[in-house]
Amino acid sequence: MNLNSNSVHTEGVWFTEPNKVEVREKEISLPGPDQVMVSTLYSAISAGSELLLYRGELPDDISLDSSIDALKKGVAYPLQYGYACVGEVTHIGSQVDRSWEGRKVFCFHPHESYFLAKTKDLLLIPDNVAPSDAIFLPNMETAVNLIQDGRPAIGERAVVLGQGVVGLLLAELLSEFPLLSLVVIEKNSERHRWSKLIGIDNVCGPDEALEIDLISLGGADLLYEVSGNTEALNLAIKLSGYCSRVVIGSWYGNKAMKLDLGGEAHRNRLQLITSQVSTIEPGLTGRWDKKRRINLAWEMIGKVKPSKFITHVVSVREAPSFYRQLSESTEGLLQVVFEYRD
To answer: Could you tell me if 109 and 172 lie in one domain?
Structure first.
């Protein structure tokens, strides 16, 4: 970057059509009076919503995110997407407090090497959180939100279906509760190792799930579906019992699904709870707001240190290759992170 120039050269990921991304270059001007410029250090791929967009599986009648200004637009290719950037403030506008200069920040912003933002859209990274851990803020906030929506109670039998990054973080947080049992279900046997790494001993694949003794005990009390697989929701229903809570954290996009509600589910008074991090469960809003939940997520990140889940750190120029790999198979890929260098 040329510090004497009036503009900066930036590279960003663009979703140009289903199953195709490009890395595009452009010049951006130095910040206006109320803006700062952020030099991105890392950004993380979401293997959930970003792959839906990559595959063309997002509904076109809904915004990408209802709570993030940069993502309130609908799906119309070409577009930029992503929401986990960590960087350093390199330039500040004339009206911005000088204390922002040089600070490490998080932003819900698409993958891009440099970008302009207002300070209200930036989060200062706590001193005890490394940048490589900070990129997991959206995942951790989602895991916290899932916990709050499910309300686990002492002595309950809980199940987590899916061991992607969100599922792993959720399972690790749940392991701190005085549950009677915690079972995780994941079809990718390679990810069983990650579950056991965080201390979850009861791990199985979907085909083995019906053989565990949950059903004989009356079913699980609390189940989380975070696999992104529509078939997993029917498995959760089969593993549930009377008045069980099934928290649906997956975003299925426009994928059609056949939900099996004609069997025991018909009499079981199941609670199917859709959970999405853009909002807070209404029963908590008297005491909880976005700021409090973010602060809790930072605290959990400092404790869990989720950078242990990073399997690949690559140049943003490798984006086309890695989106294709993630779309075809997640074998060997858990969290892919783009690294930015001048």
So the answer is: no
